[in-house]
Input
Amino acid sequence: MPLDPITAQVIQNRLSGIVQEMQTNIFRTGYSTIVRESQDASCMILDANGDVVGEHVILPLHIAALPEVIRAIYKAYGDRIYPGDAFITNHPYISGVTHSIDMAVAVPVFVGEKLVAFCTSIAHKSDLGGMVPGTGSGNARELFQEGIQYPPVKFTDRGQVIPEVEAILRANSRTPDVILGDIRGQVGTARLGEERLLDMVSRYGLETVLETFADLQDKTEKRVRRVVSGWKDGVFEAEAWVDNDGIQLDRPILYHVRIEKTGDRIMFDFSESADQTLGPLNVRPPLVRGCCYYAMVAMIDPELPNNGGLARVVETRFRRGSVLDPLFPAPTNTYMASATAVTEAVLQAMNGLIPKKKVAGMGGVGGMVIGGQRHDGSSYVQYELIGAAYGARSGKDGASGVSVLLDNAKTAPIEVIETEFPARVRRFELITDSGGAGEYRGGLAARREYDILAPKAQLTLRGGKHTQPPFGTDGGKPGRLGVCIINPGQENEQSLPSRFGGVVLQKGDVLLLEKAGGGGLGPPKERNWDALVEDVLDGYVSFEAAVSDYGADPDRLREILFDWTGGE
Output
């Protein structure tokens, strides 16, 4: 009997609802601020083959990583997968996990004796050992310096927690209670998904549910191929750069893409990208494919299901030994800077296919970690993701003070940071004139300044765009560069690069972190006058920049501002 389309749609919506419930649960049960507040975690449902069938994506690259996790579990365990099992892994090479600071959890779902699906998640961990607090050193030279590596192992076996695995996890973290709390939360979230999925199977029948799994992917593939076939054939190339790899600070890293489009086929060739790096900028091919999925969704339809059907359409080519196909044990922990650069290059190349959807350069991504000891001697790891800025888009200004592209996490509230860690936030604000000038302005970057209150701490940064500015497009100006400074304006001021690890901080030090602003799009002098005046009134653009960058008549602007502010 053919699959009823109404039933299929109901099941599809139900799958999305289950994943959303899982997502909410993982945030509410998170022990760490990185999960609970920044929401650096994603949940998914995959079929028995490891293809995505249910998603409500928070971090798009997890879409590409979790199918690799399932394949690694099959390779390691074969038919030794049982009801009640829960697997963990954080290995970028064996399991395809984003980087070793992320822990994947997968729970198999059985109907009777038949394995039908996996309920899964990936969540960032505050500390899994390694060179520095927070694990991810921007100076790491090999994977073994990036914390303990877990190939696929069982955390629970047929419902029973394996105490030896918990003991190993606890022994290899500076924050063991937080780590185990987050992992148990992930397992509980997967069990919730399992329960909801089995309820759905009992209502609609296993055969109907499995047919819907296949139907969802088939429909996505057909839709994407239909859209791609409507794009013009040809070859389109673009490139992007990252400041450095954290080791060779004077060497920018190239990311090059060549898109070959013929009929309903599209190939993304990254062979001309830079060689693999000494520092931890390297990123594995499955995640680069995830960048391509993201770009395809952005260019086709934000509501397009990012499931296994889309994965069938995207073809990729890599060069072994490159930054996008590194040889083990090349370090990978700052992969997000590379992934963002890849995505920017892909979106620029796709402008040749879809010229009405242009976007300027982004303000950079990456986490900051302050870790050390409190006054009572206990260890802490303060991990933060601080928003940057989007570049301007066709017809729109860039968004300000938010995470960009694939780094779709939240900035932790000041109140949480000051409550849980020995730090005081002096300032948290948008930076005037940080967005690139243009007919459409780049988004403004964020500035955060801290007093260090701990008696002993180390600072690690995995950032970017400190020397390579976010590019402008079609005559737009680049965004302002980011900076990281210890004790700004003091005799012992120290300016730091965009990625490093383990810089010592003393009690009383002041840390200033400014993200880069987004690039502008279109000639600045074509910006709408009312929009420019509003920018000046809001403090987004200074009076001086309005005159020098946008060509505003100073007398006219001064008169309008005088009227608006009543002469103040």
